[in-house]
Each structure stands twice: as structure tokens, then as C-alpha cells.
Amino acid sequence: MSDETLTFEQQLSAQAEDVNALLDVMQAETSAIASRKATDIDALAKQKLALINAIRQRDQFLARCPELASPSDETKEQIINIQDVLTQCHQQNENNGIALQRAQLSMHKLRNLFQEATGKSEMTYDSEGQASGSRTLGTNIKA
């Protein structure tokens, strides 16, 4: 059964399921970030993107439905619940983004510490202040 053959109520229920699934994926992403499992983070990001695309497509379809002009109280309540879960998704996504930035920063610091341990004479810095080790620095000079 394609999405277009579903009733408005079925479409709305499917939208609620997708939004709840998105929140579940984002919570799993939080755990993957905390445990620094890069493969899990990547897989969850792909799931998240697929769910967001499905939600966006269904939302466009629902926006064209005449039932939205005068929704019932039950429909209004369901829409409010979907919006509440979406708000939670936005907050979770922001938190995950901040956690990923922190993890990336700590990895850069750790990498810099390892590079410094190999020898301070081999350290160079780019225009952004990022350290990089260069074992070939000055080795191609023929004087």
C-alpha cells in the first residue's frame, strides 16, 4: 500500500511513528557518541537522514490534505504530540552536535599530544593553529 492510498488518519499515525522512531535513533546516537563508536554513529546518521526524508515527504503530503482545514480535537491532539516529539528531536540533535564537537576537539588535543611526544622539533602549525608533525621537514635540503 503506497502512502497516497492511506487515509489522513493513517498518514498522521505513520508520521507519529516516524517521529518517535527518529527520537529513538537520536537517543541511540547519544549512546554511540558517548561510547565513541564511529561505525555506530555513521549508521545511525544514515538512519536519521532516511527518517527525516520520510517525515518531510509525509509532511508535504499531509499539508495538502483538506482535513487540516478543520481538524477534529483528536487530530489536533495528535498533531501537538508530533510537534512535541519533534521539539525533543531538535533538542537531542543539538545536544548530539555539541557532544560530537567536544569529542572532535578532544581527539585533536590527543593527536597533538601524541605528535608532541614524538619530538617537538618535528611539530609545525597551520594558519588555524592546528599542530601537525612533519618528519620530512628540512630533509630534502641539499646544501
The profile of the biggest β sheet is: 2 strands, antiparallel
Report strand %. Answer: under 5%
Low-confidence stretches: none
Radius of gyration: 24 Å
**Shape type:** elongated
For the biggest β-sheet, the strand order reads: 1-2
Q: H/E element string? A: HHHEE
Helical content class: 55-70%
- What average pLDDT do the residues reach? 84
Q: How would you describe the overall organization of this protein?
A:
This protein starts with 7 loop residues before the first helix and ends in a 10-residue tail after the last strand. 69% of the residues lie in helices and 4% in strands. With 143 residues, the protein is mainly α. The protein has a two-stranded antiparallel sheet with strand order 1-2. A hairpin with a 5-residue loop joins strand 1 and strand 2 (131-133). The protein contains 3 helices and 2 strands, in the order αααββ.
